[in-house]
Specification:
This protein folds into 2 domains: 2-67 and 438-474; 72-300 and 392-426. 59% of the residues lie in helices and 9% in strands. The chain is α+β, with helices and mostly antiparallel strands. β7 and β8 form a beta hairpin. The model has no long low-confidence stretch (mean pLDDT 88). The radius of gyration is 38 Å and the shape is rod-shaped.
Length: 475
C-alpha cells in the first residue's frame, strides 16, 4: 500500500507540473501580440530517486524561463533611436523645400530675376519713368521675398521649439512609467512576464525619442541613463528633464539663443543627446536653421545674402548721380534694414521709404561720365561673380537652395535606410524570443497528452488501491 500511495503522490505532483506548463503555454498564445512580450517556457526538474532513503522520484516544476535576449533588445532600441532621429529631421526639414524652392519662377530666385530684368530695361533708357518705377516695384518684390523667407524659417524654428518641449515632456512621461514599473518589480520580488513586457515595450517607446543605455540591476529594477551619462530612471526614482525657452527668450533685434536640454540638477546635457526624435529636433533647431536664419554665433546665409545684395546696390547707387544738376544730385540708397544685428537683415529689409522713382541714380559721374553707367553696373550684378563667397548673388542663392535640398534628401534617405534596419532588428529579435503560434500549438498538445497520461496513471493507481483494499477486507 505504501508503494501505491507513493506512486499516487508522484502522479499528483506530475499533474500539477503539467498543469503549470499548460498555463505557461496558454499565456504565450494569449500574449502573442502583446508589445514587449517574450516567449516563456516551463522547466522541469527531476526529484531524487532513492527508495532506501524514502525518495520515490518524480518531477517538479522549475522556474519559468524567458526567451528574451537582452542583446537583441538593445539592438532594436539602437536602430529605433537612429530611425527616430532621421524621421524627425526628414519631417522638420521638409519646410525648407518651400522656403528655398529649386524652380527659378518662385521665391527669392524669381524676385531676383525680375529685379535684374527691370534694371536691364532701365539701363537702356535711364530717363524712362515707367522703367524707374519697375525697378522700385521689383526691388520691393525682392525685399518681400527675403522677409517672407525669414518669416517662414522663424515659424519653422518656433514649431521645432514647441516640438522639442513636447518631446521632453514625452520623455519625462515615459521616465515616470519606467519608475512605476521599477517600483512594482521591487515590490513583487520575483519575475513577472507582464511587468517584463511593459518594461521592454516602454523602453522601445523611449528609444524613439532619445538615445540612452538601459541596464538591469540585481534587484530586478532597470537603470536608464540618457546618452549613457545622465540619469533618467534609477530604481524607484525618475529624474525630470527641462528645456530652455529658445525664441521666447529672444530680446528685440537680436538672434535667438540655442535651445538647451537640462537634467534634473540643471546641467546642460544637450551635447549628450545625438539621436531619437529629440536629437533630430535639436539638430534642426541648433544647427540647420541657424545656418540660414542666424543665431548668436552666426548671421545666417539668408541674412548674408540680403545684406550683401542691399549693401552692394546701395553702394553703387550712392556713388552715382540722380541728376547732373547743376549742382549734381547724389544717389539715394535703394534698401534699408535693421543694422543692430546681422541676423535680423532678411526679416527687416525693405525698399527705402524716402526714395522716389525720380531719385534713382542712373548716372555714373566717372571718369568716364556715363548717363546710364550706374544702371549698367546694377544690371551687371546678375552675372558678376565675387559678390559673396566668390559667387554672384544669384549663384549664392542657388547654392542655398541646393543645400536645403541636400539636407532634406539626406534625412529622407537615412530614414528609409533606418526603417529597414529597424525591421531587420525586430525580425531577428522575434525569431529569438517571439511567440510562434505553431510552436505553441505543438507544446500545448504535448502537455495535454502528458497530463492525460498521468491522469490515466492516477486512475489505474486508484483502481489498484481499491482492489488492494477489497482484497484486504476479504481476508
Amino acid at each position: 500500500m505504501a508503494n501505491l500511495f507513493a506512486s499516487l503522490n508522484v502522479a499528483s505532483s506530475a499533474l500539477n507540473v503539467f498543469d503549470q506548463a499548460l498555463e505557461v503555454t496558454s499565456n504565450n498564445v494569449t500574449n502573442a501580440s502583446t508589445p514587449g512580450y517574450a516567449r516563456q517556457r516551463a522547466s522541469f526538474e527531476a526529484l531524487p530517486f532513492d527508495p532506501a532513503q524514502g525518495n520515490v522520484g518524480g518531477v517538479t516544476a522549475g522556474e519559468v524561463q524567458s526567451a528574451r535576449d537582452e542583446y537583441a533588445e538593445s539592438q532594436v532600441r539602437s536602430q529605433v533611436q537612429a530611425w527616430g532621429g532621421s524621421d524627425q529631421e526628414a519631417t522638420s526639414l521638409a519646410a525648407l523645400e518651400a522656403v528655398f524652392p529649386v524652380a527659378d519662377n518662385s521665391g527669392i530666385a524669381s524676385a531676383l530675376n525680375d529685379l535684374y530684368s527691370s534694371l536691364s530695361q532701365w539701363s537702356t533708357d535711364p530717363n524712362d519713368a515707367s522703367a524707374r518705377q519697375s525697378v522700385l516695384a521689383s526691388a520691393d518684390g525682392v525685399a518681400r521675398g527675403f522677409r517672407q523667407a525669414a518669416a517662414d524659417l522663424a515659424q519653422t524654428q518656433s514649431d521645432v521649439e514647441a516640438q522639442i518641449r513636447a518631446a521632453v515632456n514625452q520623455i519625462n512621461t515615459l521616465g515616470s512609467q519606467l519608475q512605476q514599473i521599477n517600483q512594482e518589480r521591487l515590490r513583487s520580488g520575483h519575475p513577472d512576464a507582464g511587468l517584463d513586457a511593459r518594461l521592454h515595450s516602454t523602453l522601445e517607446n523611449l528609444a524613439e525619442w532619445v538615445d540612452f543605455t538601459a541596464s538591469v540591476q540585481p534587484d530586478g529594477s532597470v537603470t536608464v541613463l540618457l546618452g549613457g551619462q545622465t540619469p533618467l530612471v534609477i530604481g524607484g526614482r525618475s529624474y525630470t528633464l527641462s528645456t530652455s525657452a529658445g525664441s521666447d527668450a529672444r530680446p528685440a533685434g537680436s538672434a535667438p539663443p540655442a535651445v538647451t536640454v537640462r537634467s534634473a540638477d540643471g546641467a546642460d546635457i544637450t551635447a549628450q543627446i545625438s539621436s531619437g526624435r529629440l536629437g533630430g529636433l535639436l539638430d534642426v533647431r541648433n544647427r540647420v536653421l541657424p545656418s540660414y536664419l542666424g543665431d548668436a554665433n552666426q548671421p545666417g546665409d539668408l541674412n548674408r545674402l540680403a545684406k550683401g545684395l542691399a549693401d552692394q546696390m546701395n553702394q553703387i547707387l550712392e556713388a552715382g548721380w540722380a541728376s547732373d544738376g547743376p549742382p549734381p544730385v547724389p544717389g539715394t540708397p535703394l534698401f534699408s534694414y535693421d543694422t543692430s544685428s546681422d541676423a535680423a537683415v532678411a526679416q527687416t529689409v525693405s525698399v527705402n521709404s524716402d526714395l522716389s522713382a525720380d531719385q534713382l541714380a542712373a548716372i555714373d559721374p566717372g571718369p568716364p561720365y556715363s548717363s546710364n553707367g550706374t544702371a549698367l553696373k546694377l544690371a551687371d550684378l546678375a552675372t558678376q561673380s565675387g559678390q559673396i563667397d566668390g559667387q554672384s548673388f544669384t549663384g549664392f542663392y542657388g547654392e542655398l537652395s541646393a543645400r536645403a535640398g541636400r539636407e532634406v534628401a539626406a534625412a529622407r534617405e537615412s530614414r528609409d535606410a533606418q526603417q529597414q534596419l529597424v525591421a531587420q532588428a525586430r525580425s531577428l529579435r522575434d525569431e529569438i524570443s517571439g511567440v510562434s503560434l505553431d510552436e505553441e500549438a505543438a507544446c500545448l498538445m504535448q502537455f495535454q497528452r502528458s497530463y492525460q497520461a498521468v491522469a490515466k496513471m492516477v486512475s489505474v493507481l486508484d483502481d489498484l488501491t481499491q482492489t488492494t483494499i477489497n482484497m484486504a477486507s476479504a481476508t
